[in-house]
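Forum: Protein Structure Q&A
Topic: Joint prediction for protein chains with partners

I've read a bunch of threads here and the consensus seems to be that you should model interacting components together rather than docking separate models afterwards. I'd like to see that in practice. Below is the full input, 741 residues plus whatever partners are listed. Could one of the regulars post the assembled result?
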Amino acid sequence: MNAESDQDIRIKLLDIFEDVFGVRMAELRDELTLLDVPGFDSLKMINLMFAIEQGFQTQFAGNELAEFANVGELVAYLRDQAA
Amino acid sequence: MTTAGFETASDSRVQEMQQRLTQLLDGCSSQEIPKADVCAKIARCYADLGDSPAAIAWLRRLTNAPDSFLAWNNGALLLDQLIKDGSRGLPTRKAKVWVASTYTSAQFASLLKLAGLRHGLTLDVLEGGYDQLRQDALAPGSSLYSAAPDVVVVAPHAGDLRLPEFSDDPAAAVEAELSRWTAVLSALAANGGSRIVLHNFASPPANVFGHLSQSVKGSRAAMIRHLNERLGEQQKSGVSIVDCEGLSALIGKRVWFSDRYWYAAKQAVSLEALPLLARHTASVIAAQFGLSKKCLVLDLDNTLWGGVVGEDGVNGVKIGQGDPVSEAFLAFQAYIKGLQGKGVILAVCSKNNDADAREPFAARPEMLLRVDDFAVFAANWRTKSDNLRDIAKQLNIGLDALVFVDDNPAEREVVRRLAPEVEVLTIGPDPADYLRALAECTWLETAAFTQEDADRTAQYRARNQAADLEAAAGNLEEFYQSLQMEGAIAPIDDASLARCVQLLGKTNQFNLTTRRHSESRLRAMMANPAVDHFTLTLNDRFASHGLVSLLIAEQAGADYVIDTWLMSCRVLGRTVENGLLSHVRQRAIARGCRHLIGVYAPTAKNAMVSDLYERFGFEQLGRSADEVRWGLDLSAPWPHENTYVRWRQANGLLKVSA
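Posted by a regular:
Agreed with the consensus. Here's the joint model:
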């Protein structure tokens, strides 16, 4: 499997965030947390989990997604999954 | 608007928006139905550019594309915003729906609004608290009842069931579980005037008894099956079922059930399956509101048979057993014949010479459909959209009651453009796929099944023959006489109740007040001694039309007030209404009333009866934004007796007047 670069992952995540939150963000900074995203709630959390799982062909166990401190950690996780 | 680095799409960079829109539209110009996420993006562009009708049209297209939860979710977010802004282009028909669930139903509730658009409904969807179904239903003053929804969707899941893996008395276990649910359903029916839509129980794939559960009645899987059957019987108490067991099988139980999402967020139905569930729930709700499609309009060449009859000749067209193409068309015809038996009217719309088009039906015994199966047979060279308008007119139904099936994408496009009210089925080039596309389209869901439904095409065909006779008879009196009509008037009884509820739910044109009384409301009215109810059944020399008109009136002192008066469009224009009103007038006099009061409440569809009371000599008493009140002095002469219908004595309240 081709490892995706962090940049590819970020671009894909931007699309996913737009899908889930209905908002196009200019960029995804590493220090951004989910709580910073406008309209974030527990429901969107599940939708986001679904969207990332579909987009990256991965599966989160339990509440794994909520436990990432910020976007930087999420990107690192997805990079390791793809490797 | 820019907040903290986030640009919302309502930015004023219109030019950029337009560029993005053009890009999106160019990217999908060769696709009949673009992918769902593309539809959602295009809809958002239109919304941002201020063209909400176009945005709404694209949201509707989204619901016809292959399902994608994320695209639906995105579309639903946009729809919420459009509804909040009171945007132009939203369906004027509104309904309030309460989702009472035992699992996390927020996503479902949101998707249901989008699915409502498909059927021309702007849905206001409210939700009970998480797992508050029982509390909301059983407490008379609950927030559910104070919201007074038009529809309650009861959405439990198999995890709620108190059924063991094995019971040595399965019948008792099922009955006990059934009564837990009927308690909820009857509380809903008794406390509110809402229609009730019940999601039945999707049986989980993990099944201890495995294949043996088909033989062991006490196994949990067998008991769930039995419970679903018993719940289906609640239809007679006004509960409509959404068959989640069937839907979970359709999409696959491995997809429908996701244990991970259950543990993570109490999602009893996986997000992937929610568009399917929302679409089907909306179609059942729409059927209750009388918004189901009534007529299936079919092309002939390469739609009902393989090949082109005008070129390949009557013996060259492919239909019957023996080769894959012929068999696919045969199966498609068999399914359509089945739909007709359920009450769907069939019509033909084909570019052909009329004689060529009819020949295969007569000359090819393999054909399952016959010319007689079609209420209208339009084979000519006119534009299909014009023919569809004629078909709707001849059948006295709206263009929006038609579903059009044609193998030719160009014809489908013409109809989408020139008769956008018609629902056009998208089918692939392979006839083997036609049947599934039609079976899964959900346009033809109906709320009830009665004898009238089974006989419908015959009735409509008879109506058309009667119309031909009208043209031949020269004058109207001769026409009415020649119909040899026979009628009977009787109160609603157990046998006619289902048909009455169905007519209340779906009659749009000849309907003075369009009050969509639910079955529970109707029963309550019937129990009121001040209320009289009259049904009219009609036969003529062509057909038995069955129960075609319903009138409900209530005495209020010296006034006799008509609450509801509706009539099936099949029997319009033949003086039947005179007969019924004459009877009702007699009844009002017998009750000692002095005035007969009628109300006309205008809707988008019932203009044909706007002057009905005036035609009967009523005087206008008053007019408000919503209705016009008419009154008739019962001591005044009545020159409107019906002499064209021979009245049969019917048992019940009313003696037939002279």
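The CA atoms of residues 167 and 218 of chain B lie 5 Å apart.
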